[in-house]
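Render Fructose-1,6-bisphosphatase class 1 in 3D.
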Amino acid sequence: MTRKHQTLGEFIIENQTSFQYSSGELSKLINAIRLAAKVVNHEVNKAGLVDVIGAAGDTNIQGEDQQKLDVFANDKFISTLTNRDVVCGIASEEEDSFISINSNDEQHQNKYVVLIDPLDGSSNIDVNVSVGTIFSIYRRITPVGTPVQLEDFLQPGHQQVAAGYVVYGTSTMLVYTTGDGVNGFTLNPALGTFYLSHPNMQFPEDGKIYSVNEGNYVHFLQGVKDYIKYCQQEEGDRPYTSRYIGSLVSDFHRNMIKGGIYMYPKSSVTESGKLRLLYECNPMAFLAEQANGIAIGGKTRIMDIQPTELHQRVPFFCGSKNMVKKLQEFLAKYQ
Ligand SMILES: O=P(O)(O)OC[C@H]1O[C@](O)(COP(=O)(O)O)[C@@H](O)[C@@H]1O
Ligand SMILES: [Mg+2]
Ligand SMILES: [Mg+2]
């Protein structure tokens, strides 16, 4: 049951029973994510004042320079989830391999693994543009009480039991689904409490916003180029508006509220696109579908892709139903 402005804590408890595996374990896990998000939010908000601006000096397994806030957020989410004893394994965009949490200890009967992009939109940290955190939750498929295995993390997106993101923007919001619609909670910084502000979020079926890094246009496949040209044509309700923040979470959030399409295609320079299937595309796809949107990798529904590696990248197209369908028409011409 949703009541506007109920707290996240009340919402979690009141909706626990609508979750098919409800044992309270997932509620504890979402609460732990809420706690870590508040700690990271605190650091993000004072990014200019404290030493979390700039590169941390290391390169992650993606070959990217880790930002100090990437490392801070990664440590905070991993330590909070571990200390709260709510997961049996964690995989992070910032970690080479997955982390097993007490999973081979009979005492620890935790059933969930979490996959996380601790800080999304890293290129925007130093320039005070909104960034986020993305999380994806699965039930383990290997027996409880035994060490988690890679296969526990390489599950197709449609196996997710929950997914969500935190956007650290003009306000801080936690938006998530457990497969029963999408709800958004806004943090009241004075009270340190998240309140239900956006119940039952839905992508408008049509939109007028397209989000893509047009700087890569020359490298895109012809179908994508044609669709971008279609968005820019003077006809009917077009041209659409081009909006690209460069933080997936923020671009997705805006498009979900206003109607739009986000695209990170593969190109002659990024053979399989840039975004990570497990930490970015699957959770956003689960949210999109729960909010009446569509998420594809080209021909394939994102959540039907069988993952093969922890850090694999895929092309990603996501947003308002009729806009993604129109894009599919253009892509189909060249398939
Ligand atoms: O600068 P580009 O190539 O357009 O990429 C921007 C995209 O890369 C990302 O920053 C990748 O995420 P990370 O910041 O977590 O690495 C997305 O948030 C964003 O949509
Ligand atoms: Mg990211
Ligand atoms: Mg990241």
